[in-house]
Amino acid sequence: MYRYDEFDYQFVRDRTAQFADQARRRLAGELTEDEFRPLRLMNGLYLQLHAYMLRIAIPYGTLSSRQMRQLAMIARRWDKNYGHFTTRQNIQFNWIKLEDTPEILAALADVEMHAIQTSGNCIRNVTTDQWAGAAADEIADPRPVAELIRQWSSLHPEFSYLPRKFKIAVTGAPNDRAAVKVHDIGLRLHKNDKGEAGWEVIVGGGLGRTPLIGVTVREFLPQHELIAYLEAIMRVYNLYGRRDNKYKARIKILVHELGPEKFRAEVEAEYARRPKQETEVEERELARIAAYFAPPQFERLPRWSPRFEEARLANPAFARWVRTNVAAHFADGYAIANISLKPEGGIPGDATSEQMELVADLAERHSFSEIRVSHAQNLVLPHVKRDDLFDLWQALSGAGLAASNLGLAGDIIACPGLDYCTLATARSIPVAQAISRKFADYDRQQDIGPLKINISGCINACGHHHVGHIGILGLDKKGEEYYQITLGGSSATSASIGQIIGPGFAGHDVPDAIEKILDTYLKHRQPGEEFLAAYRRLGAQPFKEALYAAH
Amino acid sequence: MPLIKNDRFIDDPWTHVGLEDSLPSSGDIIVPYARLLKEWDALTRHDGRLGVVFTNIDRVEALSLFLPRLALIALPFPSFTDGRAYSLARQIRETGFAGELRASGNVLPDQLQFMRQVGFDAFEVTERFAPEVWLGASRRMSLAYQRGLYRPAGEAEVWSERHRDAEPWLEQPHAG
Amino acid sequence: MSITEKGQAMTANRLRDGAVVFFTRSGDWSEAIDAAVLATEPQAARALESRGKDDERATLVTGVYLFDAERRDGHIRALHIRERIRTLGPTVRLDLGKQAEGLGGAFPAENGG
């Protein structure tokens, strides 16, 4: 894992002092709310439905056990003993006081964390594959580059007042788990004919009001040119992105309105026009960072773990958890253990201080003190010995953290919705809870197979409903909540935007509607065919009939 | 309007001359870009230094013919959340322009450091904030990760500091 | 038969801690909706809003706005679900927020209450 050096520490301490001064000036009336808002947002502090909300950056979703404990402490001391893990691999606290914020930021700085740029019209927390550095299918760990981008984008003087927020995702694996095609910039590592690694640069994807799949601006960008090239893209966006209408201000609209060719030409012209920088420092910096991400000292273990196999045979519940929540690790004898934050009827992504502390303990015992946060709002212990999986599962079971539903119907992604969020038009969480209860039976979930249900409480799409196999969007119709359903979305390598299936539903009718959709799938599927594939083959018609036929 | 240059409030030696105003016979003047286009010949003969107000919807290329004769470029911020001028400022500095680059319009103290880092070296500010707030605001951060910024002595460029033995990075002139 | 009086109440967040507050009959801010003053005439609503702006300038509160509400049996009920959730706390965590602190409104978030 990356560790701060003296410069990184100085940076977060300066920033904490700067924000403390800004908060003091606001409380003293020297700054108006209009002036203070962008300043607090750039530090992750929102004013939400019930209180201030502080969003803390978890860069590329990687946390140490020590950091997790500090988050638990912050939740206990300054919030209400829980936190919410978000679809941007961050954590947010819902009951923060403005006057406490400087102290919280200082507590974060102590453990090499911050809340910089978790909101505002700037470059947000860079996200990546939650299995980075562990996945069996990876070309290279994307986190060194993600850290390089984190540093480069932190308080970037040129790009802190962009037309709109800006999100970058990076993947180092052919199976895209970072949704790079639906980000403002997506970076995909791949190799050219000569075996050199480079970046495919994808620009202008995004969800929200106008969901679009990004376009490739460069097929193969040599690694060392990355920062300079990103600057060119950002500059074109900062200068020419629309500022007249906040719903048209994201880079995807600029790419769309100019057309991919013209946009690419603008970027390349800007890139060529800029004085050529030496990239040796960036290369060295990347190498310095990469050293921190060297794989931990794995023991040489046989692939086969008798202890694990025996436990699996003896305990069907454990076997089920392994089947759904454990993924292949590149090192023999190790596995990736996914901790679902989606218990039956629970609030997706919420964890109590005690749960955070338990996960920190387990990470220390079983995973080289490392934890990941996934964009599906789950946690990951990336490096667990197969021998230890049963002990781990037992410990998780005792704390309500062993839901065996990763990637299944119960693993619902949901934004906080109208229960917390001031932008929301409808609640998300109660809908997620109702669906989770309806499909609580693990055998049924298993039978349905891989399924992504995503719920957003407004058109801003924080729940990524456009890329859910089943997407649910909560809207307000004359003061009543109702929900629009989309089918066929995906953020995976073959990304697609879901299509609206028909008229919306009242909240209490949504679980039945989901059941009709899934029954239709079960009726029509071919052997081994997953929901998304079946939908792509069948089209919307049979689902429409099931949902809207008169009788 | 108070003017900050080199971390001090100074009297503005420049006079703003609007589109319709008559040209003074001498002295340092700042004219709108439209006037530059219209009266370039007359302006080149002006007795005094010449500056221009360049809005953020114009492209930097449009300035290239005039640059050698310009001693000042003012970039107005229509609102403090409109960040186009940060990029424009950097583009202008990247052409080699060494004159005064002035931020005007809706500017907040908390933005002064960013502005200075991208190449602004003069700031037309309001009296809405106390002078000491303005003066202290541009040094809140003692370091930056990005390279090639304009910075006063003592403000560290993190990546360059970490790799001091790398190929010597062409130092930007210090601001102010 | 209860008597229903319709009008507008005023809410904001307290600046220093963000707590949801309502403007009261006695001219200050309360965390409980039932203490809120209900403006039943447009003129009274405008006067209310102007008081709110004053308190924003005095850095007591931020984000002042009026919302439609009614008085039923001596309790104030917000007409829109969003505002009712603000008077209670999250509907998915009944152990948190005003509803858990004895400051909650008398009406559930869902309609039909």
Structure description:
- The complex is a heterotrimer of chains A (551), B (176) and C (113).
- Chain A is an alpha+beta fold and 551 residues long.
- Chain A folds into 4 domains: 6-110, Sulfite Reductase Hemoprotein, domain 2; 142-290, 2-Layer Sandwich (Sulfite Reductase Hemoprotein, domain 1), CATH 3.30.413.10; 306-397, Sulfite Reductase Hemoprotein, domain 2 (Alpha-Beta Complex), CATH 3.90.480.20; 413-548, 2-Layer Sandwich (Sulfite Reductase Hemoprotein, domain 1).
- Chain A has 18 helices and 21 strands.
- The N and C termini of chain A lie far apart (58 Å).
- The model of chain A has no long low-confidence stretch (mean pLDDT 96).
- With 176 residues, chain B is of the alpha/beta class.
- Chain B has 6 helices and 10 strands, in the order E-E-E-E-H-H-E-E-H-E-H-E-H-E-E-H.
- The longest helix of chain B has 11 residues, at 84-94.
- Chain B is globular.
- The two termini of chain B are 19 Å apart.
- By secondary structure, chain C is of the alpha+beta class.
- Chains in contact: A-B, A-C.
- At the A-B interface, helix 1, helix 2, helix 6 and helix 9 of A face helix 3, helix 4, strand 9 and helix 6 of B.
Mean pLDDT of chain C: 94
Average pLDDT of chain B: 91
Rg result of chain C: 13 Å
| CATH class type of chain B | Alpha Beta
User: How are the strands ordered across the major sheet of chain B?
Assistant: 2-1-8-7-6-5-4-3
Widest sheet, order of strands of chain C: 3-2-1-4-5
Strand percent estimate of chain C: 25-35%
Q: Give the radius of gyration of chain B.
A: 17 Å
Major pleated sheet of chain C: 5 strands, antiparallel
List the main descriptive attributes of the protein structure presented here.
heterotrimer, A: 551 residues, alpha+beta, Sulfite Reductase Hemoprotein, domain 2, Sulfite Reductase Hemoprotein, domain 1, 4 domains, six-stranded mixed β-sheet, five-stranded antiparallel β-sheet, 18 helices, globular, C: 113 residues, 5 strands
Could you give a short description of this structure?
The complex is a heterotrimer of chains A (551), B (176) and C (113). Chain A is an alpha+beta fold.
